[in-house]
Amino acid sequence: MNSALSILKHHKLRITDCRLEIIREFLSKQVALAHSDLEESLNSQFDRVTIYRTLKTFLDQDLVHKVLDDSGATKYALCSHEEADHNHEHVHFKCEKCGETTCLDAIALPKISLPKGFKKQEMNLLIQGTCSKCS
Amino acid sequence: MNSALSILKHHKLRITDCRLEIIREFLSKQVALAHSDLEESLNSQFDRVTIYRTLKTFLDQDLVHKVLDDSGATKYALCSHEEADHNHEHVHFKCEKCGETTCLDAIALPKISLPKGFKKQEMNLLIQGTCSKCS
DNA sequence: GTTTATGCAAATTCTTTGCAATACT
DNA sequence: AGTATTGCAAAGAATTTGCATAAAC
Lengths: 135, 135
Hints:
The structure is a homodimer. The first copy, chain A, is built from five helices and six strands; from the N terminus they run ααβααββαβββ. Chain A is an alpha+beta fold. The longest helix of chain A is centred in the middle third of the chain and has 13 residues, at about 50-60. In chain A, about 25% of the residues are buried.
């Protein structure tokens, strides 16, 4: 039940080629993808604008989440089931050499106590360095 | 010794109006600033391009660091002295209501052990929620 | 048949580059 | 004087919007 089709159905979105292909990209490559990555790998199969709108739709429906990046490009990754239930804690590792960002689901974030009056809704930890492939 | 002037001298940069004013903005507002924030608060006192180049110079000289943000805009904050000595660990809090991002220097990041072959160089934790002013 | 998504064109915004004039040391 | 910075113009990316056509339900 982790097919592109079932994911779309689960989020009650219309089934279109563009949406299916974009989800398949996320499923096959296990890294965070930017708009430009999708545009390139889908090889002009769909309009640039359609990809922007698809990502926006997915974001609104909590099908993907933004992945922080210091390069300026906005990157996205599929939400896991838990995240879809509003557990928003992400740990990502970005390799400075190959530029790839991967989710480190195995690592849990410790509880952090904030100053008075601050309410936490989401935590994002980005670790930058060199990945195993590049070191 | 925390004046705009001394900061520039410490980094061996030429003293110019634009650089002084931008550092003063960072010193007075205690939040992370994007290019657009500076452009607005400096009220066209300097060219848009000059602000871009000044931020780039500051970044190269480790006078400011990038602050992660999910809005797409690149934000910057002054480096503290320790950070200038290449201790790159940042905890930031972004309020979803007012949009302001503040440094939480008091909070230390726990040590995180990465999978084999991964080398850590920098860690950024962004906590999003509601700040004390907005709650 | 009604609603929603797509493609195309065009407008905006964001960022970078080249070059001559100016300011800094 | 010599070098680095600025402003202006213009180019190049990234992102958004409007609208008619096409596809999904």
